[in-house]
Amino acid sequence: MRRVLYLILRTAVTGKPWGEAVLAEFDQTTGTWAALRWTAGGLWVAARERPVAYGVALAAVLLAVTTSFSFSIWFVPSNAMNPTLAVTSRHLVDRIGYRVTGIDHGDIVALPIPDAPGHETLLRVIGLPGDRIECRDGRVLRGGTALDEPYLSFESQVVGTECAPVTVPDGAVYVLGDSRPVAQDSRHWGLISTDDVTGRLVM
Fold first, then answer.
1. For residue range 74-100, what is the model confidence (pLDDT) as tens digits?
2. Where is the Peptidase S26 domain (predicted)?
3. By C-alpha distance, which of 94, 160, 168 is closest to 129?
4. DSSP 3-state assignment of 1?
5. Which residues pair with 82 in a beta bridge?
6. Which of 60, 121, 149, 151 is the least crowded, having the fewest Cβ atoms under 10 Å away?
7. What is the span of the domain harbouring residue 152?
């Protein structure tokens, strides 16, 4: 975030007799909010001389701030979603957009771990409100039809999946990990409230 703000500020003040001093002072700021305030101050001064450039820079700042609150980088701590998400890999998680577009089958979502307060996990959405989820012969069925799950780990495909039948009510989702033998998910915790979902994997 600080790097983005610095680039925006540098674009706005380059060529100004006081520009170098403003950039030097930016390096003395500590924390994102201090950097944001200093950048806004530099843009305000620059606006008096180059209003068009200021408008573009201000839009960039707003975009940067919005993005910083809308997305987060997720560090994968476990094998629950292996091989789709490798342990220690990092992925972009949308924290706001999914609330507008909704959640769909197959989405990988972030949610708090019920028995580990303060910790989150990523799991795949298998069932939405109205879906009947059950397991038969090691396969997951939704509405009586076996799911095609090419994302499962090799071990998961060999061992299969066992689960208790359930119909997903309104305001809930049924989630499973891609590595079924090691994942903790709706087979253990039950249905997850959609209000508890905190994000959706983007990439």
1. 788 788 999 988 888 888 888 877 887
2. 56-202
3. 168
4. coil
5. none
6. 151
7. 71-201
Q: Give the count of beta carbons closer than 10 Å to the beta carbon of residue 89.
A: 12
Domain boundary among 68, 85, 119: 68
The answer to whether residues 83 and 173 belong to one domain is: yes
Q: Work out the angle between the directed axes of helices 2-13 and 32-47 (0-180°, nearest 10).
A: 20
DSSP 8-state symbol, 79: S
Nearest to 87 by CA among 95, 78, 74: 78
In this structure, how many other beta carbons lie within 10 angstroms of the beta carbon of residue 23? 17
Domain boundary at 50, 68, 86, which?
A: 68
CA dihedral 165, 186, 169, 134 (to 10 degrees): -20
Greatest CA span in the chain, whole angstroms? 75
CA nearest to 46, candidates 61, 34, 58, 28: 58
- Residue 154 and residue 170 in one domain: yes
pLDDT digits (tens, 9 = 90+) for 163-203: 999 999 999 999 999 999 999 999 999 999 999 998 898 86
